[in-house]
Amino acid sequence: MAVNSRPAASPGSTRIGFVGIGNMGQPMAGHLIKAGWKVSVYDTAPEKTRAFVDANGGEIASSIKELGQNSDVVITMLPDGKIVRHVALGADDNLVQGMRKGAAIIDMSSSAPVGTRELGAALAAHGIDLLDAPVSGGVKGAVAGTLAIMVGGDPALAERLDAVLAPIGRRFYIGALGAGHAAKVLNNYVSAAGLVAAAEAVLVAQRFGIDSQKLIDVINASTGRNNSTENKFAQFILNGKFNSGFALGLMAKDLALAMEVADACDVPAELGRACLELWKQAEKAVGGAADHTEVARYVNEHSSRSER
Ligand code: NAD
């Protein structure tokens, strides 16, 4: 049957599987259950799925294959596209062993756009549809159900599955398969550059004798304001908390993916390359598991030009 002649997904008729109950997946899957969808969950960290089901309801799948068997639509919210591919098609335990023809996967992770196209072709050979639907808005947006969702793939499939995404946030249809993932990593390039620019400005201001919070306050009333000045400096950086819930290694990964897309499109993106280099150095110094806001501390602590 053609994709667009199938009925739209609905809580009464569509079972959801959710793989990756981490910082983002946990609140996102929680919204689906609150909205009435039947959800089963899987994560390699069983304590996360146990805590999730205790707090929200839903069911724990004992394997990825079992999750696939019990789902019409599987959402992946995993660290990167390689892990998504492994979960979908990898050796031993995978989704395609369990999923029926005509079922669909929605990859909401920030995955590599080119890899997403390849995965789409591989899944099509098993009769499984793929949509990419990465998100922006952080843990705060995930908890509030207000994420920006960047959707790529067959437009009829996107429409059919729109109701699944509605409890999680606002949907923006971007284009063909992989377009959502490309938009997402380009967004994170702009976000990562904005964070570093503000961290450098704060450092220069400190040395000039200007209070950091005063600088952030006036930037937030001026043309230099960005998401980091508005939502990260006072909340996670200047107070020393560094606990936004988004890992530095994940941001560095997104930046590298954005530059891969730039390469594929023959765009020099010189600022992006310099930014990626700085994030890579920060990752080496503080580790990928550190919160991404630690990049501001890294900028501060490696603040002598002669050190570079
Ligand atoms: P996270 O590390 O908190 O969660 C990932 C989860 O996947 C973990 O619970 C981990 O145990 C699980 N996992 C890893 N490998 C697995 C496998 N093979 N099978 C099953 N489960 C597996 O990461 P997160 O912060 O929730 O981010 C998830 C994705 O969303 C990433 O692609 C990230 O770039 C993106 N993202 C994160 C944020 C944020 O603010 N945290 C915002 C937007 C997008």
CATH topology of the largest domain: Rossmann fold
Helical content (DSSP H or I, runs of 4+): 40-55%
Please identify the top-level CATH class of the largest domain. Answer: Alpha Beta
Ligand inventory reads: nicotinamide-adenine-dinucleotide
Query: Total domains, how many?
Result: 2
CATH architecture level-2 label of the largest domain: 3-Layer(aba) Sandwich
- Content of β-strand: 5-15%
Radius of gyration: 20 Å
Q: Provide the spatial order of strands within the biggest beta sheet.
A: 3-2-1-4-5-6
Estimate the mean pLDDT confidence: 96
- Tally of DSSP β-strands: 9
Largest sheet properties: 6 strands, parallel
- The low-confidence parts are none
> Could you tell me how far the N terminus lies from the C terminus, measured between alpha carbons in angstroms?
60 Å
Per CATH, the superfamily of the largest domain is NAD(P)-binding Rossmann-like Domain
Structural class by SSE content: alpha/beta
Principal-axes shape call? globular
| Tally of helical runs | 15
Element-level helix/strand string:
EHEHEHEHEHEEHEHHEHHHHHHH
Salient structural properties:
single chain; 308 residues; alpha/beta; Rossmann fold; N-(1-d-carboxylethyl)-l-norvaline Dehydrogenase, domain 2; 15 helices; 9 strands; globular; binds nicotinamide-adenine-dinucleotide
Give a description of the structure.
By secondary structure, this protein is of the alpha/beta class. The protein folds into two domains: 3-176, 3-Layer(aba) Sandwich (Rossmann fold), CATH 3.40.50; 183-306, Orthogonal Bundle (N-(1-d-carboxylethyl)-l-norvaline Dehydrogenase, domain 2). Helices cover 51% and strands 13% of the residues. It has helices at residues 25-34, 46-56, 64-69, 81-89, 113-124, 138-144, 155-160, 162-165, 179-208, 212-220, 227-231, 233-237, 248-264, 270-286, 294-301; strands spanning 15-19, 38-42, 59-60, 73-76, 104-107, 129-132, 135-136, 147-152, 169-175. A six-stranded parallel β-sheet has the order 3-2-1-4-5-6, sandwiched between helices. Strands 7-8-9 form a three-stranded mixed β-sheet. Helix 1 (25-34) runs parallel beside helix 6 (138-144) and helix 13 packs antiparallel against helix 14. The protein is globular and about 65 Å long. The chain starts with 14 loop residues before the first strand and ends in a 7-residue tail after the last helix. Nicotinamide-adenine-dinucleotide binds next to helix 4, strand 7 and helix 6.
